[in-house]
Every structure is written in C-alpha cells, then in structure tokens.
Amino acid sequence: MPKPVLDFWFDFASTYSFLSAMRIAPLAEAAGVEVRWKPFLLGPIFASQGMKDSPFNLFPAKGQHMIRDVKRLADEIGVGFQWPDVFPQSSVLPARVALVGFKESWGHDFSRAVFLAEYAEKRVISDTVVISDILTELKVPVDVTFAAAQSDAIKGELRDLTAEAQKRGFFGAPTFTTSDGELFWGNDRLEQALRWAKK
C-alpha cells in the first residue's frame, strides 16, 4: 500500500516555515506519511492581496510577538534562532536550488541548511556565497547546480508552484495540503495535517 501524502508548501523567507522544516521529517515518518516539499514565493501572493511587505513588518506589534514566539518554539525543538538583519529575505535563489535538489537526493538537507543559515546564523540566503557554502558542505557540485537552478525549466517550475499556491487561495506559509484538497495553514497545524492525510 502506498503511503498517504502530505504536501508541505514553504517559503524560505518564512519564519514559521523554518520551524516546520525542522520538525516535519520525524513526525511524518512516525505517522507513516510521505511528505512532498514544495517551495513557493509569498511575495507575489502578498502583492496580489494589496500588501507591499510582510504582514509582520506592516503590523509591528504582530511582528514583535512573532519574533518572541519563534524563539520560544525554536528553543523547544532544540534549534538556534537569531533574528536576521534583513527581513524578509529574497528566497528566489534557494528555492530554485532546492527544486534541483528535490530531483536528486539532497533537496531536504539543503532546505534545512538554508533555514538554519538564515534563522540560526543570520546569513543572507540570497547571497551566492552562502548557497555555495551549503552545497559544498553537502558535497554537491556548485557550478553545475547553479547552472541547473538558472535553467528555464527550474525557473518555470517555481513560477508554476507560486501560481498554483495563489490559485488555491494560500495566504501564508507554511501551508499543508492533502490529497483530498484539505488545506492547513501554519506550523501549529502540522500535526493535524498529518493526521488528516492518514484518514
């Protein structure tokens, strides 16, 4: 019998996607659910909804609470957290590289490393040096990977995923969707999404 499937939609610029990326693999394994990681870009979706910035910047009180909330949750799951100097960061480059990695064997490790670089080490994930360092650490060829990430196919795939997220009515990340079309939004809905996927 094939495993039930849960789609994990995330943006590297999203703090709560960071938390879910750090938690999802062992929870999904314990639940017997296959997870498909789907990077997309929140920026165009926010723009279509009339927002020119992250809601956490537009509403400072909400943003300050989010920072404290993510710090508490990161401490609970045993990962470091430092607020980056720039927020939100451009996630286009790492998202494209991740799509290359998901076609091979290193996409999940790469994605977790990007989140840690951004939110535990305060590094800038749009910087090619940062991404190169992560690929080198994973023993992935850098030049070949960057070339693949800049291909029309990968660029189109990221555009298509973002368009699909917008068509489905996404309004934030992480978002989880099941094979029957159910949508769960937020890191705190991960466990419920896994339970639903098994139904």
Structural features, described:
The protein has 199 residues and is α+β, with helices and mostly antiparallel strands. Helices cover 57% and strands 10% of the residues. It is built from ten helices and four strands, in the order E-H-E-H-H-H-H-H-H-H-H-E-E-H. Strands 2-1-3-4 form a four-stranded mixed sheet, sandwiched between helices. Helix 1 (15-31) links the parallel strand 1 and strand 2. The longest helix has 18 residues, at 60-77. The protein is globular and about 45 Å long. The two termini are 14 Å apart. The mean pLDDT is 96.
Helix fraction?
Answer: 55-70%
The biggest beta sheet is recorded as: 4 strands, mixed
CATH fold topology? Glutaredoxin
Total helical segments: 10
Choose one word for the global shape. Answer: globular
Q: Approximately how much beta-strand content do the residues carry?
A: 5-15%
Mean pLDDT: 96
Structural class: alpha+beta
CATH superfamily: Glutaredoxin
Distance between the termini: 14 Å
Overall structural domain count: 1
What is the number of beta strands? 4
What top-tier CATH class fits best? Alpha Beta
Q: What are the low-pLDDT stretches, counting only 5+ consecutive residues below 50?
A: none
Order of helices and strands: EHEHHHHHHHHEEH
Overall radius of gyration: 16 Å
Overall CATH architecture: 3-Layer(aba) Sandwich
